[in-house]
Amino acid sequence: MTDNMTVLTKLKNELHALKNTLFYKEEEVKNLKYDIEKKQEQLLEHNIIVVQNCEHEWENDFIDSMIPYRLSQPIRYCTKCELTDCTTFNT
Ligand SMILES: [Zn+2]
Prior knowledge:
Layout: H1 2-53, E1 58-65, E2 70-78
Antiparallel strand pairs: 1-2
The chain binds zinc ion.
């Protein structure tokens, strides 16, 4: 009986420690996701500044579209900043 109680106490302690570890890992993931969001916002702001200040050099080309699937769709893009006729900034 004493051995069973010892094992049970040990398992309860291990479970408690695992729950704590899981909690801190989840918090770490939340913080990392927040950091990624902030970095993506900064990258978007920088990309907008680059596009707004670029002296575009336009080039015509063709690309294959996957959805819907279409071959050789005409596209125009800037060789410096990669702006295209289809570029959108999701803010
Ligand atoms: Zn450009």
